[in-house]
Write the structure tokens for this entry.
Amino acid sequence: MSDTSTPETWLTQEAFDRLREELAERSGPRRAVIVKRIEAAREEGDLKENGGYHAAKEEQGKNEARVKVLRHLLEIAKIGAPTAAEGTVAQGQVVSVRFPAFGDTETFLLGSREEAATTSIDVYSPTSPLGAAVLGQKIGDTVEYATPNGKKLQVEILSAEAYTG
């Protein structure tokens, strides 16, 4: 049974493949290099004052945490983009919005932060304040959302088109 409180994670095939390669590298060659660094530092003696040992252990912790995140993400990720009714904002779309109070416009990809590594466009998560505000809304709608500092902003949805990479 899936957790319905967390939005689905959609990835392009390219991002999924890149993350799978990163997982293989982190759980194989990189892990082995870190273990060798720890062993070499242990051989130097007193671990209390051994900076190399502590740095290698910290690196190991960060690597293992990333491995755990990658495994989870690859298990739950869906490839492609969800289907959406015509004119409705969904994950995997490039969304253009206008901030009426400022007259500014912004265009971004509504998707996983993991997509940011493969695109030059800004990526907003569907759980971010702006992402959550526009997700499921229709083109032409004006919605209000709270920014992280507590201010309320209105945004008008100008367009939402499939992301083509």
